[in-house]
Specification:
2 helices; five-stranded antiparallel beta sheet; six-stranded antiparallel beta sheet; mainly beta
Amino acid sequence: MSRAVALRLGAFAGVLALAFAGAFAIGSAIDPIAAAEPAQAPAQGKDGMGGMDGMTDPASNPSEPAAGHGEGHGDEADAQPPGLAVSQAGYTFVPATTFFQPSQQTQLRFTIQGPDGKPVTKYTKTHEKDLHLIVVRRDLSGFHHVHPTMAADGTWSIPFTFTAGGTWRLYADFQPAGYDDTLTLGTDVNVSGLYVPVPLNEPASVFSIDGYDVTLAGKPEAGKESELTFAVSKNGKPVTDLQPYLGAFGHLVSLRGGDLAYLHNHPAEEAKPGTKGGPQITFGTTFPTAGTYSLFLDFQHAGTVRTAEFTVKVGTDGTAIVPPKTLPSSTTTPGHATTPHGH
């Protein structure tokens, strides 16, 4: 063999050796067996966690809550608002049926199932009732605040008529006996028939019903307790003889647009039977986030409970709601039609 041929064969063998070595290295990088070989763990900190100094993977430690998802008690602004869950703290809202026909009176029945799996039969009264039931269609029309009666076996029932087809939201607001706080559980039911969504009222500081004008003033701000004041007048004159309703001169329900979270509102003044109130009714409430909220104020006068509805846009800057200095002689409010309903 000539020297030139030998050199060419040697060079070719060297190239093959390099090629096999590179293929082996690549194969080792992706070979599951090679990957299973123990390797030195990277140091914790910026280098070991891709720039997330001090962060750990919650999945690797189930007892460690993910960032921003703690117990829900330390920061109320981050806690889930009431009314979004059908079950909480072992208590579950269980309707007897979730399908109804429109415009037909039916018995709306349900139970509150306790941690033992049995219907709860003992409650602590809140706002003078063992349980408050809120019924509203998911477009926020057809609002009703009613109080069913409970049978000995823990079944709640009330005659009720769903006025239109669509999905309706039910809220049960109650405090089980022996439990330290109120709970608000929510669930959906279905009403057959044509669904025609009703648009929300435009934001306004005045709502009129049956000759009554209700004005709203306040400075709602997301994440902070806000004071809201409603003033009731009739035929242009302040109403100074409002009657107590559920332990106050008014009861307020606030629902967040989109998910229909239910907000607890606290009246500034309690009302004892036989006393008179008005024209102003003040509440403290905390809007957890910026957004659009629907407010439903129940007030009682001359033996009848009526509901005033407001749409409020809440921002982070605390924009004030200022009612007009004078009310027009005939105030009309577009949007939902509200009529007195059973309570």
